[in-house]
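User: Please fill in residues for this 417-position structure.
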């Protein structure tokens, strides 16, 4: 009798404490929302922490746990935690990077979040890179422009105008070379900067559909369409447009020539702006769209898109959906994107105030289509081989035939699996 009374007291105590065990997990734990983030740089990290704090304030019943990983380490870590210890929300990238995990069954279909929050209309420009087989598997939180950042004072010194056509771009570069200025700085030690040049040359010469066919492995690196791409690229190398010894510099180190005025232009993403501000040269920096090469080809831009995802194995999908609904609101997106130098994908967000972001916003809104970026549009393995080949070509253009043959052999292997 005493034992029965003790057991009843324990049950009452447990219920009173609000902890009801189900399947080995406490109900209290089931209200926990775990978020894994790759935003490790100071400004983005603080901005996202503010977003999470806003959500906590609106949903005090949810215990939000935010785990922040080093940005580069996250790219490896996500492969493990999605499969073995998934959070409820994971930050990642749209396009092929997302599709890789969708194909493995590791991400949740969140088409209902798009339906219930009118995102098909309000995020129309970002819908395609978030979609696989007609369903949406992530919710975008921002994207940013690529283009050419340049020294306005150097252009003014030599009477140069912003080039809109390829002929004008070549004239600008030739004038700079004649006056001892490197036209284009670039650091290719980490390879991916080379992909920016490949993307833009291919998009401007062959257009979006062909480019995406190549990214999907349906076109080949031996195609005659790519002859023109490499011919134009090699012409720039021959004219001395690129920074010497660029393979020894990281993309950050390659900013120095732009900052000190020994180089005039840099094809890069908008993430360069904070460094230029810190260096005190931002008042002498302008931005222009990659010039037109073939007027008959539409204007397509690289605009890498950042996304939120619910892992397929998430424990708290109900609250995860609440979080996605919250972070897809135009006010939340607008504030967050502005804080990290991105563009909000929501059409009702306030227009950006930063002049560079505003230019990017106008440029991307007017584009005929948006690509993600070479290493986000093709398979990760193919991207590694491709960018190695592009760097080798920029250092040794005479090796191009062998490079293209090797890349196509890798393409056939990777996309036949």
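Assistant: Residues filled in for all 417 positions:
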């Amino acid at each position: 009798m005493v034992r029965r009374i003790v057991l009843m007291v324990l049950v009452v105590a447990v219920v009173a404490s609000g902890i009801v065990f189900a399947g080995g997990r406490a109900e209290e734990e089931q209200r926990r929302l775990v978020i894994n983030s790759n935003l490790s740089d100071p400004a983005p990290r603080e901005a996202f922490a503010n977003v999470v704090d806003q959500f906590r304030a609106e949903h005090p019943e949810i215990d939000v746990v935010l785990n922040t990983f080093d940005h580069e380490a996250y790219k490896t870590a996500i492969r493990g935690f999605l499969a073995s210890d998934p959070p409820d929300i994971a930050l990642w990238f749209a396009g092929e990077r997302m599709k890789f995990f969708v194909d493995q069954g590791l991400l949740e279909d969140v088409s209902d979040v798009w339906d219930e929050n009118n995102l098909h209309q309000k995020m129309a420009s970002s819908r395609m890179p978030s979609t696989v087989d007609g369903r949406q598997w992530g919710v975008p939180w921002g994207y940013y422009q690529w283009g050419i950042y340049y020294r306005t004072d150097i252009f003014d010194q030599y009477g140069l105008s912003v080039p809109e056509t390829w002929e004008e771009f070549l004239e600008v570069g030739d004038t700079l070379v004649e006056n001892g200025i490197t036209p284009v700085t670039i650091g290719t030690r980490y390879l991916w900067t080379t992909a920016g040049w490949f993307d833009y040359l291919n998009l401007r010469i062959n257009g979006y559909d062909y480019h995406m066919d190549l990214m999907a492995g349906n076109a080949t690196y031996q195609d005659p369409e790519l002859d023109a791409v490499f011919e134009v690229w090699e012409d720039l190398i021959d004219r001395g447009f690129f920074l010497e010894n660029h393979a020894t510099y990281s993309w950050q180190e390659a900013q120095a020539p732009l900052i000190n005025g020994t180089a005039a232009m840099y094809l890069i993403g908008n993430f360069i702006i904070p460094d230029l501000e810190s260096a005190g040269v931002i008042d002498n920096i302008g931005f222009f769209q990659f010039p037109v090469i073939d007027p008959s080809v539409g204007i397509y831009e690289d605009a890498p898109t950042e996304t939120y995802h619910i892992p397929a194995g998430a424990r708290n999908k109900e609250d995860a959906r609440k979080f996605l609904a919250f972070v897809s609101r135009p006010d939340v997106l607008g504030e967050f994107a502005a804080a990290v130098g991105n563009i909000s994908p929501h059409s009702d967000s306030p227009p950006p105030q930063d002049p560079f972001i505003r230019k990017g916003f106008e440029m991307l809104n007017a584009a005929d289509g948006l690509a993600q970026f070479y290493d986000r549009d093709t398979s990760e393995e193919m991207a590694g081989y491709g960018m190695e080949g592009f760097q080798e070509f920029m250092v040794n253009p005479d090796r191009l035939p062998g490079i293209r043959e090797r890349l196509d052999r890798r393409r056939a292997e990777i996309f036949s699996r």
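For context: Residues 31 and 62 are 5 Å apart (CA to CA).
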